[in-house]
Write a structure and sequence with these properties.
Structural class: alpha/beta
Oligomer: single chain
Strand content: 25-35%
CATH class of the largest domain: Alpha Beta
Number of strands: 15
Largest sheet: 8 strands, mixed
Radius of gyration: 28 Å
CATH architecture of the largest domain: 3-Layer(aba) Sandwich
Number of helices: 11
Number of domains: 2
Helix content: 25-40%
Shape: elongated
Amino acid sequence: MKSFKLEFPNADGQMLSARLEMPVDKKPKAYALFAHCFTCSKNLMAVTNISRALTSRGIAVLRFDFTGLGDSEGEFADTNFSSNVQDLIVAAEYLKSEYEAPKLIVGHSLGGAAVLIAAHKLPYITAVATVGAPADPPHVKHLFEGALDEIETAGKAKVSLGGRPFTIKKQFIDDLQEYEQSQVIKELDRPLLILHSPQDDTVDIKNAEKIYLAAHHPKSYISLDGADHLLTRKEDASYVGEVIASWATRYLPKPDEDGLTTDHQVVVRNEKERGLLTEILANGHYMIADEPKDVGGTDLAGTPYDLLVASLGACTAMTIRLYANHKGLDLEEVKVHLTREKRHAADAESLDEKSKMEFIDRELELTGNLTEEQRNRIVEIADRCPVHKTLTQGLIVNTKLKQAVS
């Protein structure tokens, strides 16, 4: 994953601080825009973990701080829900002009309510996801219920939110009252995914029900059982990101691998500006290879030798599985541990004493109700793996120039 710090001006010219998370190959299949929760920031661990889960599935994510929060300029006390929606629209337009228009928009808590509004004004958004979102923005008033009288009479009050002091002005409350979202949700006309925890004690689960009932199909609901409102457990946030990524795939453009095609089994491409980072398309399956930083790579993927050793391990595991199934063996799991290194070959008399040979050490970890005889037989079967035979029986590589297509 590659992360970039960015800045762009809001509608009033104040700079908003943002971070763009890119997939490891820096070629996202789509861009997403993330709106964080009320009084939070783009650096909240839940936001980070959800973003990383999305980037691991090839979706780039722009997350930013609303005006007056985190590293963004402006005064939080002068903002309101409407300005949050405007910040979202500005962020989307920035993505569109500098990179690519976002196809997915995700909002957490009040940010979820904001994305439902903003999506109406962003025709290029093809999918919307909310996490722990209130069905109506006025719902957040309960967070500063004890100060409402003071806000009404004095025009503002200091309240504690998440252990931090914030000034809330009457205009903020008045602005919230302007939003009744049921009609907005009904007219969304975009696929909607609603994620909410039944144990959310900040935004009650009934909000998810109200959003779901107001929305038209296609719509989906996922229960985040056991999670809290802020998704403080990493596994909960990662799960949210993985679910959103899987769901959104149906509504995002299909990747064309940028013309990476071949009439062979495998095609590999390396481009000058990417250093040693190399793309691989193997029978339609995309992957990348790289080298460690100390040898000039960027360490974004395994090395070619890692892939070679991994292919032996994968083939070994598959061969053992096929044998165990054929014989009806109680083999629950097979793990193949491999290490490649060069070392002296004492038994190779034709080599001088300084010569070294390539060795791959392979250890099998077998789990299941197997006899000693069955285990020993599986070790023998491992040597029948086709990749093992190819590596040990000799291999000829023919190389020629491919004729350019005119």
